[in-house]
Amino acid sequence: MDDMEQQPVIPPPPPGGDHCYRHPSVATGVHCTRCGRAICTECMIAAPVGHHCPTCVAEARSEYRKGPGRRVAIANAKAISVTSVLLVLMGIGYVLEMVVGGVGSLMSGPNTIHLVRLGASIGLAQLPDGDVVGIAVGEQWRMVTAIFLHGGILHLLMNAYALWLFGPVVERELGRARFLLIFLTTGLFASAASYAFAGDPVQVSVGASGAIFGVVGAFVAYNYRHRELALAAARLRGLVPFLILNMVLAFGLNSVIDWRAHLGGFVAGLAAGIVAEGWGARSMRTAIAVGGFAAITVGALVLAAWKTAQYRTEFPAFF
Hints:
Blueprint: E1 45-46, E2 51-52, H1 54-66, H2 68-79, H3 82-101, H4 105-108, H5 112-118, E3 121-122, E4 125-126, E5 132-133, H6 142-145, H7 153-174, H8 176-196, E6 204-205, H9 209-225, H10 230-251, H11 259-275, H12 282-314
Antiparallel strand pairs: 1-2, 3-6, 4-5
Helix pairs in contact: 1-2, 3-7, 7-8, 7-9, 8-9, 8-11, 8-12, 9-10, 9-11, 11-12
């Protein structure tokens, strides 16, 4: 009998364990199969074998979060692409536009005043209620929020398609962090270029196309750096018709496309694609990449500051 395999022994309940350890006035004959505490029907939590008390369940969950749960959460987070998140944000932005603009804004988007209220890029303007708004009066955040707003469902769908086409490739080649930096910094630079070279301070600009052209520019620069590879060379050849078509559309007669944002985003994207991988010694590549993205950001802020200084001179009454 002594050689027989012993069965696990459940710890005996502590003295007075016939009353719930959380509700001392409640008598019970049930005990936690993990720690042996007495638990009432209100406290018992079903387990694969028997019932557990709330304290043991909380401890088990904490252990899971610190171990396997943490690894699962990290794996799930890595599985979500930045491109998908950006597309969702663009969709949320358009939903907000419909909420503000009403059902009639589904196809064409809300009116200009609503877009400005939501965060569209505008240099300097006075709204009907007397509010003075614009990047020139310290609302530099408009250069970012405008990226996620669109002037109609067709505008949104075209930009979403372009991002879905190029985003996953750049994200896969350069990594999620670099791709996100490319999108945000070139989008900021595109908005700054639109603001700095706009002919009218009340010009309103919205859309992710500047940032998307930044992604395309980075895609061009990245593949040019690797042009000795057949795939990279083929990608460059395939981009030529796309770039020509967009130039025709942007500079065509009566075009409503903000070519300043497109051109600014593309130029910033070329710079971002050059510095994204860094160069030289491996230990210096990350520093070079970070410095490059910082330079693009500073360039955008300098452009905005230059234009703001002009507006302060031309329209002193608004400052």
